[in-house]
Design goal:
Isoleucyl-tRNA Synthetase, domain 2, elongated, RNA-binding, four-stranded antiparallel beta sheet, Isoleucyl-tRNA Synthetase, Domain 1, alpha/beta
RNA sequence: GGACGAUUAGCUCAGUUGGUAGAGCAUCUCAUUUACACUGAGAGGGUCACAGGUUCGAGUCCUGUAUCGUCCACCA
């Protein structure tokens, strides 16, 4: 019984993963802990954040897979009925963006394709990626139950999403409204507020004469239709003007009649304290217009070009038109001054960086009031979520995310869930051409208006991808009647990136409480961002992206896994340094060689013989037991960064440096050596599953299991 | 404009109810073919960002300041 002199991670990993898959022990039903195990009637469940099926596994995924696998393997060994449920995400907008880039490279455009054709192509693209990403997840050693794998576009998921939509509509929490939304002119879709990124920009700031007033703006191209001039009701400088007063004045394309509006939204200290409003293309202005019932007019079309209202500038792109408009205003003597370096914040599309052009558009919205009960006129989505978090029913790790989540939920605004992209779940609604009556048609059966008999127009918008993934925890467990739902819900831990706290985590909490009446998970464990070795954010443009699969190739998956975990506290970003992974590759080699040494010294050893430890053995075992208890405590406290460091330290500097050396001098018994090795491998297993399993398979121990994966943890 | 986090050895980071500072990597010295050189034994290296306060005692608790980072926000 001897191990080869070198550990070949590549060969071993594939072989061992196959062994696990064949064993069937990834499924919770298969694993039967011994009769007396105190945890055997308890369950443990993690739902894997569905991986985007639009590319390759990145460093962040590697961390997710590692942490969740550690949690899963640990609980499985403790005897819990353990389920880690894997999934894949169609990732609506994100995938569409990736695919559009691909089309662009090929000189094609999605706008010249029929929607059905585009959908078919992206389906093919996604299917390829699904296989690819699944293999990469396996490469990380994930012990998830593949027989339960789910995809966000599976029929059963869509059905649940549709039912929720219908229920929300009946509860008056969904409405169709013509409101101002974030429009990405490049991708031709609206976006939620979370899908925009604020960017600081330097622009010219123009002071323009508007009748008796001077108004300041960075966007003169939106000003064509401005016919309301707004000031604060308490501004003494303008007390001569009254609300509703009409003023004739000369403007860009000729004389107009302006109306004075008094509104408290105006900051008296900013600019001149007076502004004109463009309700169609500015959220603040939209708000003012709504409050005062003012007319709204579209100036810029959905491609970012000026409409006929701009007269001679009609059809021009706004960026081209801006200087020309200023030239004209200057010629008319309407430009008072121009500030050169005006710093302000603009919204951009978080994916492509294009400037967001606010537009008014009819969209589907989800009501998101933080108030509950009758005060809000019915049910509230946010209120129960706030209560669950406040009361500690849902715990955050690290804790300070609790405040962040609550702050967002307390200030939540209605959520635009419509997207004008094909890659997503279609919104199951129809509108009557004649009377505008809306029908939610989950089964796609309604053919004419039930009210007036008119023709129905089928909705072409799709759902924001987070509308469906926000229902993931109960949808994948086959809510409401499924056996898994009854067994594993609420789940135990939601482990994901801190950047998803609003996008995903908060929405899962709201949807789950709304639908099931229960929280979706007890603990939210948020890991930090994986950075490059220098602590810089990885990005393709910087060229500092580290491919985790290169590291597994070079140093083995086990080395990458433990390297990602040791010293990595949740919530703080972690620099991924190849040298660190290399150091843990050395540790893997150490484990291998120590095991080789033990196996080479088995002469005369019989695992079935009666155990007779010496006094010194017992002392060492006592110390080991103490360490084991400490590690178990850290594991239960989800402090994997401490637990992994402790077992690392014990194995190398106590077991190898002291105990094995002692053995050479005859100080400890053969039995002790093999006992400590076997027990250490169990503790190391969640962190470094491949190498520990490979060695375990060769170990002569009493009552050996099919695999180390289902061995009992040293502390029950 | 708000909120949150960070600041500890050259580098990356731990430090769980307050009790004379820890790990890995790096550096230096020594050992020399050992299960393992992807090795062993040892060493050097820190006013714990700064200023106050509470305490017998503060890296840890409180207040303030600075720098960095992140998130949120409808100043045209």
């Amino acid at each position: 019984m001897e191990l080869p002199s070198n550990y070949n991670s590549k060969e071993v990993e594939d072989k061992i993963y196959q062994l696990w898959e064949k064993s069937g022990f990834f499924a919770p039903e298969a694993h039967q802990p011994r009769a007396g195990n105190p945890n055997r009637n308890k369950t443990f469940c993690i739902i894997m954040p569905p991986t985007n099926a639009n590319g390759n596994l990145h460093a962040g995924h590697a961390l997710v897979m590692t942490i969740e696998d550690i949690m899963t393997r640990y609980k499985r060994m403790r005897g819990y009925k353990t389920l880690w449920l894997p999934g894949l995400d169609h990732a609506g907008f994100e995938t569409q963006v990736v695919y559009e880039k691909k089309l662009e490279k090929e000189g094609k455009s999605r706008f010249k394709m029929a929607p059905e054709e585009l959908y078919k192509e992206i389906t093919g693209f996604t299917n390829e990626n699904k296989k690819n990403i699944t293999n990469q997840v396996k490469k990380m050693g994930a012990s998830c139950d593949w027989s339960r794998e789910q995809f966000t576009l599976d029929k059963n998921i869509i059905k649940i999403v549709y039912n929720t939509f219908e229920k929300l509509y009946k509860d008056n929490l969904i409405y169709r409204g013509k409101k101002i939304i974030n429009w990405c002119t490049k991708h031709q879709t609206s976006l939620s507020d979370l899908e925009t990124a604020d960017v600081e920009k330097q622009d010219k700031f123009y002071y323009l004469k508007y009748g008796p007033f001077t108004i300041a703006t960075a966007r003169p191209e939106t000003k064509f239709g401005d016919k309301y001039v707004v000031m604060h009701p308490k501004d003494k400088r303008y007390s001569d003007y009254t609300d509703g007063q009409k003023i004739d004045l000369e403007w860009i394309n000729g004389p107009i009649t302006a109306t004075v509006i008094k509104d408290e939204a105006i900051d008296m200290d900013f600019g001149t304290g007076v502004m004109t409003i463009t309700p169609w293309h500015d959220a603040v202005d939209f708000g003012i217009a709504e409050r005062h019932n003012l007319e709204k007019e579209q100036i810029i079309d959905f491609y970012g070009k000026l409409l006929p209202i701009a007269g001679e500038f009609s059809g021009m792109k706004i960026t081209e038109a801006r200087p020309l408009i200023i030239d004209k205003l200057q010629a008319k003597g309407l430009v008072e001054k121009i500030e050169e370096n005006y710093k302000h914040v603009v919204k951009t599309c978080y994916k492509c960086g294009s400037l967001i052009e606010p537009q008014i558009k009819e969209q589907w919205f989800l009501k998101m009031s933080a108030q509950g009960g009758s005060a809000s006129g019915g049910k509230s989505l946010a209120k129960p979520a706030i209560d669950a978090i406040k009361s500690g029913k849902i715990k955050f790790i690290p804790e300070h995310y609790k405040k962040i989540a609550l702050h967002w939920l307390n200030n939540i605004i209605d959520w635009n869930i419509s997207r004008q992209i094909v890659w997503g779940i279609p919104i199951p609604a129809k509108t009557c051409e004649k009377c505008n009556e809306i029908f939610i048609d989950v089964e796609d059966k309604i053919t004419s208006c039930k009210k007036c008999g008119g023709n129905l127009i089928k909705e072409t918008d799709t759902f924001d991808t987070w509308f469906s993934s926000g229902q993931w925890p109960y949808a994948v467990l086959d809510y409401p009647k499924g056996k898994d739902f009854k067994t594993f819900y609420p789940t135990d831990i939601m482990e994901t990136g801190g950047d998803l706290i609003f996008f995903w985590v908060s929405r899962m909490i709201m949807f789950s409480l709304y639908n099931t009446g229960k929280i979706p998970f007890k603990i939210v464990y948020l890991h930090g961002l994986v950075m490059d070795a220098k602590g810089q954010k990885m990005s393709k443009s910087k060229g500092n992206v580290i491919n985790p699969l290169d590291l597994t190739d070079k140093f083995g998956t086990d080395a990458l896994r433990i390297g990602l975990v040791v010293g990595n506290t949740p919530g703080t970003s972690l620099p991924l340094d190849e040298n660190k992974i290399k150091a843990y590759r050395n540790f893997a080699t150490k484990i291998w060689n120590a095991s080789r040494f033990v196996l080479m010294n088995l002469e005369g050893y019989n695992e079935n013989a009666k155990i007779a430890f010496t006094a010194n053995d017992k002392k060492i075992l006592g110390e080991f037991k103490k360490i084991t208890k400490e590690i178990t405590k850290e594991m239960d406290g989800l402090k994997f960064y401490v637990a992994s460091e402790k077992i690392y330290h014990y194995f190398w500097h106590t077991f190898c440096d002291k105990i094995i050396e002692d053995y050479k001098k005859g100080g400890v018994s053969q039995q002790l050596l093999i006992t400590i090795l076997a027990e250490s491998l169990k503790i190391l297993h969640p962190f470094m599953p491949f190498i520990t399993e490979e060695i375990y398979q060769q170990l002569p121990i009493k009552g050996k299991k099919d695999c180390l994966m289902i061995e009992s943890w040293p502390v029950e």
